[in-house]
Amino acid sequence: MSTLASRIEYYLQDLIKRKQGRLRIQRSKIAARFDCVPSQISYVLQTRFSPERGYIVESQRGGGGYIEIIKIEDEMPRELLSSIYRALDGGASQQQAFDLLHRLKEENLLTPREERMLKSIIHRETLKIPLPYRDMVRGRILRVVIENISRALEEG
């Protein structure tokens, strides 16, 4: 059985697809649907709908406030790769890196197997070096991955 956070994530992703990439919701209504506290919805939005995963989340507070989730659609895989490459300039935390790999898989630039392998390579247990060096090394590894994906796209 999946976790509550995963069930909420899948539900919101399904709604986003049906609404063509843009969804406006009320946190309290989603919380009531899943019989949980609104902070659980906030947690899902913060961890599963980040820019690294390809989403923008905006909130409007006050009387009937809402949360808007927008799926970022990149027209060109090269633009996405270039954006990710630049984001890795200062390194990457494990969670940021995992989110970026997830996004690459979602965009069909990585297979699920490649994503799993890369996650194990850049995991903190594999890179047993102190921070901030670990994040810098993780960022360099991912930049090499991005370079290779870009080359493969160019070769067709």
Commentary on this structure:
This protein is mainly alpha-helical and 156 residues long. It has two domains: 4-71, Transcriptional regulator CtsR, winged HTH domain (Phenylalanyl-tRNA Synthetase, Chain B, domain 1), CATH 3.30.56; 77-155, Transcriptional repressor of class III stress genes, C-terminal domain (Non-ribosomal Peptide Synthetase Peptidyl Carrier Protein, Chain A, Orthogonal Bundle). Helix content is 58%, strand content 10%. It contains seven helices and three strands, in the order H-E-H-H-E-E-H-H-H-H. The chain has helices at residues 4-18, 27-33, 38-48, 77-87, 94-106, 112-122, 133-155; strands spanning 22-25, 55-60, 66-71. Strands 1-3-2 form a three-stranded antiparallel β-sheet. A hairpin with a 5-residue loop joins strand 2 (55-60) and strand 3. The protein is globular. It starts with a helix and ends with a helix. The model has no long low-confidence stretch (mean pLDDT 87).
Order of strands, main sheet, comes to: 1-3-2
Helix content: 55-70%
Mean pLDDT value: 87
Largest sheet: 3 strands, antiparallel
CATH superfamily of the largest domain, called what?
A: Transcriptional repressor of class III stress genes, C-terminal domain
Q: Would you state the CATH class of the largest domain?
A: Mainly Alpha
Q: Could you name the key traits of this structure?
A:
mainly alpha, Non-ribosomal Peptide Synthetase Peptidyl Carrier Protein, Chain A, globular
